[in-house]
Amino acid sequence: MLYERGLDLYAVELRRDGELIERVDEVFFDTLGETLERLIDDGSWRRIRVQCLLSGRKAVRH
User: What pLDDT is recorded for position 1?
Assistant: First the structure.
């Protein structure tokens, strides 16, 4: 993330293994979170994963 002091704006760079994937210029502070979310969130953190571990006993349904 780069701060452009004179304009009071940010530039956000998405890099993978040192290679520039995408750059977003002129990001205001109040939209910084939304910009980061759009660039790096694949949505998988919202998915609930349930794994049932059984200890040799039969599962009891309630």
Answer: 79
Does residue 8 form part of some domain?
yes
Structure tokens at 41: 């969130």
Reduced to 3 states, what is the DSSP secondary structure of residue 11?
Answer: strand
Domain that holds residue 12: 2-46
CB proximity list for 9: less than 8 A, separation 6 or greater: 3, 25, 26, 27, 28
Say how far residue 61 (Cα) sits from the centre of its chain: 37
Q: Based on the structure, what is the number of domains in the chain?
A: 1
CA 24 to CA 4: how far, in whole Å? 12
**pTM of the complete model beyond 0.70:** no
